[in-house]
Design goal:
Elements: E1 2-6, E2 16-20, E3 25-28, H1 41-44, H2 46-50, E4 60-63, E5 66-69, H3 72-86, E6 93-97, H4 108-116, E7 119-122, H5 128-138, E8 154-158, H6 167-178, E9 182-187, E10 199-202, H7 208-222, H8 227-231, H9 236-245, H10 248-255, H11 259-270, E11 275-279, H12 289-302, E12 313-314, E13 341-343, H13 347-353, E14 360-364, H14 368-371, H15 375-381, E15 386-390, E16 403-405, E17 415-417, E18 424-428, H16 441-451, H17 461-468, H18 476-482, E19 484-486, E20 524-529, E21 549-552, E22 567-572, E23 575-583, E24 591-595, E25 627-633
Parallel strand pairs: 6-7, 6-14, 7-13, 8-9, 8-11, 9-10, 11-12, 14-15, 15-16, 20-24, 21-23
Antiparallel strand pairs: 1-2, 2-3, 4-5, 4-16, 17-18, 18-19, 20-25, 21-24, 22-23, 22-25
């Protein structure tokens, strides 16, 4: 019998699912307006993760260099003892939370450690740079309903990997193409995107702002400007003055896009019909990633394609915009707003220099050692404090823990969540019993809170769910019955160019930063791109045998210098790792691509070679600004 539930993984599709626990099958809910009866292969294969041989299903406590099994009473008793001691200096407690799972109940650890007044992380390893850029431009984070892509005459895709992106957005774009919509994609290549596009433009990684500025230059020189658009902006003269001061040939050279391609992109935006703009998260993972997003938005705005059907700029929406918080219902602690913060993507150095020192670390929803730069430094810094890791697998973070608490996974626990692509709120029902001794994260924290000398009390899960749904007056009973509720939002974002700044007007960027000079010692650019088969570091150990693979173009200057009969190494200023090299001539000649998420303990994690750098907005992580080289070593 199929039961209705939903996916809570870190994915914007947030699919509504039908699960047959006996047959162990997963399929999309055909009644859901976005899922439409199908889901991705990661969701369809989720029983493989639930039933994996290597899954941790009982609490583990460190003993010497290994771990021994413990009861929940023993494990939580030890954790409570350590937490009570650290609580004497609240800043000595560090909470590290990621988005390995989402939902109303998933807020529990954030509220729990806020009540303790713990330290927390700031900055972003995901999409916050682009979010901040969009808010600076539009006044809020929003885009047209994703189905409005079907009304576009043309779609310009800035960097989205069409072969690995949201499977439902991919399907909408494919349907639009069948209906006559043309698609132009701009990327550093290596992404399968040309197969989903009518035209593909190759660009130097991280230089999208120069390409957008070059197209704007052509707009201004043509004088083809809509007075209404100009009137709906607050700082038009600043943008005009900036673009006029830039040299067109230098802009083309900076992004390494020929003038003929720049002129073609101009024609795509300037021709009759409506143009939708898709913006990938990858192009904001550079030192000037915020500017990349802002200049693309500026082009969409200047060309008159914002606030109309078939147009719009699609970055994302907030997955929490339809849900509320329940932290005010917590009892115990003081819910401190002013807490010490450590920069998440430089966490190793932050922990080492913290004073008061960090004595206790709680990690949930985040394979933090694996996912941020300077992996070895992070792992080393986490060896002194007492570390609790809530995870179901012996990944890079679990390996440095003192206690590992096994959580119930998706399909084994209840929650409610939203999406950062569509406007539905989904109900995630438990459809199978938690494996072994695994427990929902919420229950783990509720149990731990009651064991503390000064208890911290969570409301019941039922109360939390109902409180979180009050923001949009959603009935939990209706949600449980139907599996989802579609929340009403305007179909067209910023219709008639009414923006969410106080004056209702758009804001243009007023400066453009030069790209850092190439280092002759490290002349290539490392791109740690997403996988299609697995999500982030949720990779079975069996898939990580041998050496990791990097991909380069035969036009890459390193290719002619490499001897395939000798060992090859990927090298940065941080170190070196052995790799296999394969070629893909769709890749930019200076780019080196490796798929992200491989585990440090198997030698598959490129983050060990990446030096922490911040983006220009929201303290994001500039993963893709890492330079490198490839060389043979005997």
């Amino acid at each position: 019998m199929k039961k209705l539930t939903a996916c809570t993984m870190d994915c914007g599709d947030a699919c509504s699912l039908l699960v047959d626990a006996e047959k162990k099958t997963v399929s999309g809910n055909p009644k859901h307006p976005f899922t439409k009866g199908f889901c991705c292969r990661k969701g369809a294969r989720y029983f493989e993760r639930l039933e994996a041989d290597e899954r941790i299903t009982t609490p583990l406590v460190r003993q010497g260099s290994g771990f021994v099994e413990a009861s929940w009473d023993e494990a939580l008793g030890l954790v409570a003892q350590k937490l009570d001691a650290a609580r004497q200096v609240p800043e000595s407690i560090l909470h590290v939370r990621g988005y390995g799972y989402r939902g109303i109940l998933a807020q529990a650890s954030s509220h729990f450690f806020q009540a303790l007044g713990s330290s927390k992380t700031y900055g972003a390893v995901c999409d916050d740079t682009g979010i901040t850029a969009c808010i600076r431009d539009f006044g809020s984070l929003n885009h047209n309903d994703v189905d409005d892509l079907l009304n576009a005459s043309r779609i310009v895709n800035w960097g989205k990997d069409m072969s690995r992106m949201s499977i439902h957005m991919q399907t909408i774009v494919q349907k639009a193409r069948k209906n006559g919509t043309e698609v132009l994609s701009i990327s550093p290549g290596g992404d399968g995107t040309p197969d989903f596009s009518d035209v593909h433009v190759l660009i130097r990684p991280g230089t999208d702002r120069f390409l957008a500025a070059a197209v704007l230059k052509l707009y201004f020189e043509a004088g083809d400007l809509n007075p209404w658009v100009v009137n709906r902006t607050s700082n038009w003269p600043a943008l005009r003055g900036l673009i006029d001061s830039l040299d067109y040939r230098e802009l083309c050279a900076a992004c390494e896009v020929p003038s003929s391609d720049v002129e073609m992109i101009y024609d795509w935006y300037a021709d009759t019909g409506n143009v939708a703009t898709l913006i990938a998260w990858g192009l904001q993972r550079h030192v000037f990633g915020g500017q990349n997003v802002r200049f693309i938005n500026a082009l969409a705005m200047t060309s008159g394609h914002i606030g109309i059907s078939g147009g719009g700029s699609y970055y994302n929406i907030s997955s929490g915009r339809n849900l509320g918080k329940w932290d005010r219902l917590m009892k115990g602690g003081d819910m401190k707003a002013d807490r010490r913060e450590l920069l998440v993507h430089d966490l190793g150095r932050e922990i080492r220099r913290a004073y008061p020192p960090v004595d206790f670390i709680w990690v949930d929803g985040h394979n933090i050692v694996n996912q941020i730069p300077d992996c070895l430094g992070v792992a080393d810094a986490m060896r002194r404090p007492f570390v609790v890791c809530v995870d179901g697998f012996m990944n890079d973070t679990a390996l440095v823990a003192d206690v590992i608490l096994p959580p119930a996974l998706m399909f084994e626990r209840e929650d409610v969540l939203g999406s950062f692509i569509h406007n539905c709120v989904n109900y995630c029902a438990p459809v199978v019993e938690p494996r072994g001794q695994c427990r929902p994260d919420f229950d783990i924290l509720a149990d731990l809170g009651g064991r503390l000398a000064n208890p911290v009390q969570l409301p019941s899960a039922e109360v939390c769910l109902r409180e979180g749904l009050k923001k949009k007056n959603i009935s939990l009973d209706e949600l449980r019955e139907n599996g989802f509720v579609k929340v009403s939002h305007p179909y067209i974002a910023f219709e008639d160019m009414q923006f969410d700044h106080p004056d209702g007007k758009y804001r243009f960027p007023e400066a453009i930063s030069p790209e850092p000079e190439r280092d002759p010692e490290y002349p290539l650019q490392l791109l740690t791109l997403l996988r299609g088969k697995f999500l982030h570091s949720q990779i079975p150990e069996s898939e990580q045998a041998g050496y990791p693979t990097v991909w380069i173009s035969k036009k890459n200057p390193a290719f002619a210098m490499l001897n395939p009969a000798m060992d090859c190494y990927l090298v940065t200023e941080a170190g070196a790792m052995r790799v296999n090299v394969e070629t893909d001539d769709t890749i930019h000649s200076r780019a080196v691509i490796i798929r992200r998420g491989g585990w440090l303990k198997f030698g598959h994690n490129a983050n060990v070679l990446i030096t922490p750098k911040s983006t220009d907005m929201a303290d994001g992580c500039a993963y893709y600004s890492q330079t490198c080289r490839l060389e043979n070593r005997s």
